[in-house]
Amino acid sequence: MANYDVVVLGLGGMGSSAVYHLAKKGLKVLGLEQFTEAHSLGSSHGKTRLIRKAYFEHSDYVPLLHQSYDLWRELERESGETLLHLTGLTIFGPSNSQILTGIRKSRDLFGLDVRDVSETASQIWNPSFNVPIHFSGLEEPGAGFLEVERCVRAHLKVARRLEAELRFEEPCLSWGANQDGIWVQTKKEKISAERLVITAGPWTSQLLSALNLKLQVHRVTQFWFKGKNSSILKKVNSCFAFDMPYGFIYGFPTFSNSKELKVAIHKPGDKISDPSEVNRTLSERDHLEVSQFLREVMPEVEPTPVEGSVCLYTMTPDEHFVIDHHPSYERVSLAAGFSGHGFKFASAVGKILSDLVAEGKSLELKDFLRVRPVVLNS
């Protein structure tokens, strides 16, 4: 049996950050991933993810976002990679938009730099957009996007440099805990360690079957589109989002010589019972709302995608994350249920997990993110 201070199961956005932060604490770390490095079968792929501080989902996330920004910049310095692009983000919606209301609440509570874009100003905001009449906007200059696969690779790159051992295509078959520590059985060997961290994304419920976390996996799609002429893409120089009647549509500017515009809808799709058995064939049905948005709001963009991918959301009942010690095993920590809005926090989630392992607690962990009694078996 091999012996480690801590084993991390799953090396996507959260797991890659966890091994990085654990290795920085000088611990002997083993990271196990059932697929290849920075793979496209879970939730941490698709080239880009939004990052923003004026959080409409819940204002209590804002302090964690401040830390996330700092830690992404720290990772850039240590890895030598450019990961975070502060292009700005403008979100538009009608006067009764709960999204805009949530943004204003976070802005006002924390004094964030978020600027109002009036209905009149929205009509001339960018010539490539036909902003719907009676929509206004909120512009956050300090928002932008992360290069998602590069973030995962950068965490793993520095973790390796710090002597973390990383194994790919080696799934966990089972695990257990006793008074001496924990053990993990893979297809190759039985491994022992002092601590275990589970960051398995859509596969979390399979590894934590004794807990009823009520995690529901959904199939979600992302798409890339071409402009009807070469100049359109140059006009889109910031991130954007619209609270449309049919869903929250968001998009990114092009970068790194890309010739396609990524536009997607934040909406849980079909429910998935087994994340290893997902239909990854894309159909016209998958991009109906996004194509409708392009025809209505961005008519200079071809509404038929040239590229697409399937992603997985792992949703909790209240759509807030679960980060905590295992309720029955103090040596086991977990992070799960990121509900389609978690990647931007990955840098901080890994730090929280490393603190739970090394110190037994984390000052950054908010109570509303812990394992909630409502989601446990009674």
Labels describing this entry:
9 helices; single chain; 20 strands; 25% helix; 2 domains; 378 residues; D-Amino Acid Oxidase, Chain A, domain 2; alpha+beta; FAD/NAD(P)-binding domain; 29% strand; nine-stranded mixed β-sheet; eight-stranded mixed β-sheet
SSE map:
Layout: E1 2-9, H1 13-24, E2 29-33, E3 48-51, H2 62-79, E4 84-85, E5 89-93, H3 98-110, E6 115-117, H4 119-123, E7 136-140, E8 144-147, H5 148-161, E9 165-168, E10 172-178, E11 181-186, E12 190-198, H6 204-207, E13 216-225, H7 232-235, E14 239-244, E15 247-251, E16 261-266, E17 271-272, H8 288-297, E18 307-315, E19 322-325, E20 332-336, H9 346-358
Parallel strand pairs: 1-2, 1-12, 2-9, 5-14, 12-20
Antiparallel strand pairs: 3-8, 4-8, 5-7, 6-7, 10-11, 11-12, 13-16, 13-17, 13-18, 14-15, 15-16, 19-20
Helix pairs in contact: 1-5, 1-9, 2-5, 2-9
Order of helices and strands: EHEEHEEHEHEEHEEEEHEHEEEEHEEEH
Number of strands: 20
Strand content: 25-35%
> Span from first to last CA?
36 Å
Description:
The chain has 378 residues and is an alpha+beta fold. The chain folds into two domains: 167 residues, FAD/NAD(P)-binding domain; 108 residues, D-Amino Acid Oxidase, Chain A, domain 2. The protein contains nine helices and 20 strands. The strands form three sheets. Strands 5, 6, 7, 13, 14, 15, 16, 17 and 18 form a nine-stranded mixed β-sheet that branches. Strand 10 and strand 11 form a beta hairpin. Helix 1 crosses helix 9 and helix 2 packs across helix 5. The radius of gyration is 21 Å and the shape is globular. The C terminus is likely disordered.
